[in-house]
Amino acid sequence: MTPNTPPPTDRLESALREQEERLSHCVHCGFCLPVCPTYIELGDEADSPRGRLHLMQSVIEGRLDPASDAFQTHLDRCLGCRACESVCPSGVEYGFLLERARALAVERRTPTLVTRLLPRVMASGLLRAPLLAGGRMLRATGLPELLARRLPPRGRGAGLRLAMGMLATSRPRPWIEEGRPDVSPPPSGDAAAHPDARPQPSDPD
User: Fold this and answer.
1) pLDDT tens digits for 89-119?
2) How many CB atoms lie within 10 A of CB 170?
């Protein structure tokens, strides 16, 4: 980092300040929750778009270390599908903010070996085809969705829970494509498990 280059946290703060007006328009309506694959599968407020935005805000306010497990894990779980943007009445540019927050996360913590190897595997047709075929077969059994809901969100089993949740969320969801978010958030105590994932889901009415 050169003397004239602002630290990563300052760059994230600048990116968020560019969207300050849009962020201030968020009324926590919860419209993003039923279209967010990770929130549907994991039921954790911190794994929802507004939960991740809250974590970003906590970083720029100095209340959360960008190298912390909370910031790193919940950003990493996001699929980046940006389905939330299409239903957000306030027009919050979640994808724009997510990209900058992830850049900060990578700068503050070295990715794991699996994280570094996965893009290479997916870039190889020879390796990608059997991996995807096996994933589709496992997904068809319904086991990933069951494990994503039963395994603990913290400690041992958390990594497997994330992997199974990501696999389960890849199944086709016609109701999202049709613009009819008719899936209710799953009952879970995880939403209150992390102090930096506030506020809790609220009634749009």
Assistant:
1) 888 888 888 888 888 888 777 777 777 787 7
2) 14
